[in-house]
Write a structure and sequence with these properties.
- This protein folds into two domains: 92 residues, no CATH class; 49 residues.
- It is 82% helix and 0% strand.
- It has seven helices and no strands.
- Helix 4 runs antiparallel to helix 5.
Length: 154
């Protein structure tokens, strides 16, 4: 797949973004789709499924562009299902992670550990939770920035 198709997808997304309000742009995750299209293009040389996803995206956004004023619930569901399918493929086959993946993961682990440590060390649950959460966010953010530097983020 050539980069012209990715450029066309980006142009279609930019056109759609101009037609919609900010709330709808966020709901459809259009900014994320630009990154997804570029990631698919990066792996298109070695992965036939990525090529198929790029072709599907091109058709999807062309169709979305023509139906921009007539979107219904099924269109949103189809759009989000396609997003999940592509993200799952990128995560499983290419080892990429979504934005803030490690931060959310380690924040929840940190809170859990903070609860246990708060009860054991401080005899106070309220002290342990923010300490654990802070440590989890710090570790997760560091891992997210490392993944971004390595080009492993969707």
């Amino acid at each position: 797949m050539d980069s012209n198709s990715v450029d066309q997808i980006v142009k279609d997304i930019e056109f759609i973004k101009k037609q919609l309000n900010e709330k709808m742009v966020t709901k459809l995750g259009l900014d994320q789709y630009i990154r997804i299209a570029k990631r698919l293009d990066d792996h298109a040389n070695e992965c036939e499924e990525c090529v198929n996803f790029l072709e599907d995206l091109e058709r999807h956004f062309r169709d979305l562009q023509h139906r921009i004023n007539d979107l219904n619930k099924e269109d949103y569901q189809r759009h989000h299902k396609q997003t999940n399918n592509i993200k799952n493929h990128l995560q499983k086959k290419h080892g990429l992670v979504p934005e803030n993946h490690y931060m959310t993961l380690y924040m929840s682990v940190g809170i859990s550990l903070g609860v246990a440590l708060g009860m054991l060390l401080f005899d106070n649950l309220a002290l342990g939770i923010p300490i654990g959460m802070t440590l989890g966010i710090a570790i997760g953010s560091g891992m997210d920035s490392d993944a971004k530097k390595k080009g492993k983020m969707i």
